[in-house]
Specification:
Length: 92
């Protein structure tokens, strides 16, 4: 049986991976809508703030930054593919 503390630490890290992914992808998407799709500047401002939050989220991770950042790369790739499926209807 895995140690309860280790399981909580893993779940905690996965939660912050998910939040970081949403901030990075969502913030970038809002900036994209503002600049490329001629949406209101409000989209760009909100997107910029969300990207700022993306810079803060990794500081809540319980482990060392270099390990977390390397693992996050894989999570980001999976999340961006899901984002494309859900919001952009990209199937290829």
């Amino acid at each position: 049986m895995p140690d309860t503390f280790k399981v909580k630490k893993i779940l905690y890290s996965l939660f912050f991976f998910f939040i970081a992914g949403l901030c990075e992808i969502g913030g970038g998407y809002l900036v994209w809508l503002w600049l490329r799709e001629d949406m209101s500047w409000i989209f760009g401002a909100i997107g910029g703030f969300i990207l700022f939050l993306y810079g803060i989220v990794p500081t809540f991770q319980p482990s060392h930054f270099h390990r977390i950042y390397a693992a996050y790369g894989g999570v980001f790739i999976a999340m961006i593919l899901l984002w494309g499926l859900i919001f952009e209807k990209c199937y290829s």
